[in-house]
Specification:
The protein has 10 helices and 18 strands.
Length: 410
């Protein structure tokens, strides 16, 4: 309980088709919290964490760039983070699950040069070419990449879509989310309107709530209980959670507490499958050190822009490629960005538009969006690298910005 408001949560078994929306928030901080230098952890702890690491996955593919050498990072890196809905084989907790979908797909750009970070979420129902994969190539929903060729397939698919080289990748399971949120002692979230999700039997009253464990998992995977009831709205909720989590990490000395670091690192390494390029503690430390130096206002979460479509009678989303290119160019050029769009992604009734939306000079609230945003103040950057203001179709927020989830009841 936080702020004197009681949490009303009823736990239910995850549905077979339920998404792993939960992974987004806690996966992104995995790299930030595994700062396991020899002065922070005992030798046994480092040995134990190393033993947790599973065999790495080769993510190289025909036409892709050679992965960077293992070691301290000198320049910007791109890391693909995917959340599997398989349940990790834990049938007792999560029920029998017949698929292994990447229902959360996020590209994390971290730069020790510009001291900025950008996390781009890709809606699971977006139709894209499944590229460089062993099985069933062709245009499919992006969340089928993991099923069609594992982590390497997800990397090649996102790399083909964005035009960006991706040198590192990680896949996380449900239990990693639960364990990491427990290790940090929960994350405080604001609920502006009550959430009541009958699909997963989860409810939250209006007010402030400190969520951890299964409650955090349910909050992040809830779709039917939030405004709009769509996956793009759920991504907005996940960004809210992730921003709150990063504020806690930065403000409460988490990164200097060896006990908390060990718990976080242990939960992450036990439940993650890493690319061979990332499957080393020293590499994770190097990347995490770069992220540690990024201020909250220079850490931005954005949602890949989409428009609605129907393919073979099935509703879905198509990429707004021209709008997205503005963001991809900024990442390729290592430029900081300012998110102008507010809320849960695809606008109601939208069709795919292949011309960039007008770029406003300031961000303002949009009526009917699931979150309420304070005005963000961009971090000062060198004159040679001014921030790029993104089209309004690209929604999101900086980590420094506090927002409230807007639920819906039925």
């Amino acid at each position: 309980m936080a702020g004197g408001v009681a949490t009303q949560a009823r736990h239910g078994r995850l549905r077979r088709r339920g998404v792993v929306g939960t992974v987004l928030g806690t996966v992104a901080i995995a790299l930030a919290v595994i700062l396991v230098s020899g002065t922070s952890l005992a030798a046994y702890a480092v040995w134990h964490l190393s033993n947790n690491l599973k065999p790495g996955v080769d993510i190289s593919f025909a036409g892709g760039a050679a992965p960077p050498a293992v070691g301290p990072i000198q320049g910007p890196v791109n890391i693909l983070l995917v959340g599997s809905d398989s349940g990790g084989g834990d049938v007792a907790t999560f029920g029998k699950r017949g698929e292994n979908l990447n229902d959360v797909t996020m590209l994390l750009h971290i730069s020790p040069v510009s001291h900025s970070a950008i996390a781009v979420s890709f809606p699971r129902d977006m139709y894209v070419p499944i590229a460089g994969c062993a099985h069933s190539p062709g245009t499919r929903k992006i969340n089928e990449a993991l099923t069609n060729g594992g982590l390497a397939c997800a990397v090649s698919t996102v790399s083909t879509l964005t035009g960006l080289d991706i040198g590192y990748a990680a896949e996380i399971q449900f239990q990693g989310v639960i364990g990491m949120s427990d290790a940090i002692g929960g994350v405080e979230v604001c609920v502006g309107k009550p959430i009541h999700d009958l699909q997963i039997n989860f409810s939250l009253s209006k007010g402030q709530h400190t969520l951890q464990g299964f409650d955090a998992l349910q909050f992040l995977r809830s779709r039917h209980g939030i405004y709009g009831g769509s996956d793009t709205s759920r991504i907005s909720n996940q960004q809210l959670f992730l921003s709150a989590l990063m504020r806690k990490v930065k403000s409460q000395g988490v990164l200097t507490n060896p006990i908390t670091l060990y718990k976080l690192a242990n939960a992450a390494t036990q439940n993650m499958t890493l690319s061979t390029t990332l499957n080393h503690l020293d590499t994770m430390v190097s990347i995490a050190a770069a992220l540690k130096d990024v201020s909250l206002s220079s850490m931005v979460f954005a949602q890949y822009p989409t428009g609605s479509t129907v393919v073979n009678g099935v509703g879905g989303l198509l990429p707004r490629k021209a709008d997205a290119q503005v963001l991809m160019n900024a990442i390729a050029d290592d430029r900081p960005v300012v998110v102008a769009g507010v809320g849960g992604g695809t606008f109601a009734g939208d069709n795919v538009v292949e011309t960039p939306s007008p770029v406003p000079t300031t961000a303002g609230p949009t009526a009917g969006t699931p979150t309420s945003h304070a005005t963000a103040t961009p971090t000062a950057v060198p004159e040679t690298s001014p921030p790029v203001t993104l089209p309004r179709s690209i929604t999101g927020q900086p980590a420094a910005e506090q927002t409230c989830s807007s639920g819906q009841t039925f």
